[in-house]
């Protein structure tokens, strides 16, 4: 029954998207399906599929497929090796592959769950020589609302490019993402999270850009 409720709740959120789209300034809708599969006591396989839609121009702007292997290094510390396949469709179609390494630490204080995540990405773009190295640092907090399964979630993630790539990313600040939303725990293995995010993008050849996004994700562990 919990699983059925989970699907119904997600369907209700999808049904609410048209109303959210009408919100002033909203430009993109991002969906995520992060999934973990336990293969041993300390090791899990991870996967995620993430279509990203434009609001003004209907259709997929970007589609990301993520995979990786995660190891429990300490009680509250995980290390992950991963690979992303990213297809961009706007303004023109291009492809990017990313290899990445990550450390993720968590801590619980009363009703709060705090986490910090450091990820290093090696980005390879189709038709271009060399690679771009990018660091990502995220701080996240989730606060339970009383004894309910709901929680308030917020995070900030900073992206820094480490090197300049010919005809590619330039060294320095890349972007920053600030998110606020609501989480719902179906049980210990499944949860849903939805909220509003503002993304600042630092551009070197044109004016900087700010994007406003509706972000929804379904988290599952098996």
In short:
With 222 residues, the chain is mainly β. The chain contains 2 helices and 12 strands; from the N terminus they run ααββββββββββββ.
Question: Can you describe what's shown?
Answer:
The protein has 222 residues and is mainly β. The chain has a single domain (2-221), classed as Porin (Beta Barrel), CATH 2.40.160.40. 9% of the residues lie in helices and 64% in strands. A hairpin with a 6-residue loop joins β7 (112-125) and β8. The radius of gyration is 18 Å and the shape is globular. Mean pLDDT is 89; it is low at 1-9 and 11-23.
- Estimate the strand proportion: over 45%
Distance between the termini: 17 Å
Average per-residue pLDDT, rounded, comes to: 89
Q: Give the proportion of residues in helices.
A: under 10%
CATH architecture: Beta Barrel
CATH superfamily: monomeric porin ompg
- Work out the count of structural domains: 1
| Low-pLDDT sequence parts | 1-9, 11-23
CATH third-tier fold name: Porin
Instruction: Report the radius of gyration as a whole number of Å.
Output: 18 Å
Helix-and-strand structural type:
mainly beta
Largest β sheet strand count, sense and barrel closure: 12 strands, mixed
The level-1 CATH class: Mainly Beta
Shape: globular
- The ordered string of helix (H) and strand (E) elements is HHEEEEEEEEEEEE
């Amino acid at each position: 029954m919990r699983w059925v409720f989970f699907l119904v709740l997600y369907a209700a959120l999808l049904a609410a998207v048209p109303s959210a789209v009408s919100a002033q300034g909203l430009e993109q809708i991002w969906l995520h399906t992060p999934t973990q599969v336990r293969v041993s006591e300390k090791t899990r396989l991870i996967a995620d599929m993430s279509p990203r839609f434009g609001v003004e121009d209907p259709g997929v702007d970007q589609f990301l497929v993520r995979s990786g292997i995660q190891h429990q290094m300490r009680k509250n510390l995980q290390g992950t090796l991963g690979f992303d396949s990213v297809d961009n469709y706007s303004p023109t179609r291009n492809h990017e592959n990313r290899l990445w390494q990550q450390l993720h630490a968590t801590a619980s204080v009363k009703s709060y769950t705090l986490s910090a995540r450091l990820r290093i990405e090696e980005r390879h773009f189709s038709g271009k020589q060399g690679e771009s190295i990018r660091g990502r640092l995220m701080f996240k907090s989730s606060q339970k609302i009383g004894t309910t399964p709901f929680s308030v979630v917020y995070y900030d993630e900073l992206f820094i490019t480490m090197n300049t790539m010919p005809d590619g990313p330039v060294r320095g600040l890349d972007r920053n993402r600030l998110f606020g939303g609501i989480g719902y725990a179906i049980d210990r293995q499944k949860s849903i999270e939805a909220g509003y995010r503002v993304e600042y993008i630092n551009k070197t050849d044109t004016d900087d850009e700010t994007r406003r996004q509706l972000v929804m994700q379904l988290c599952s562990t098996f």
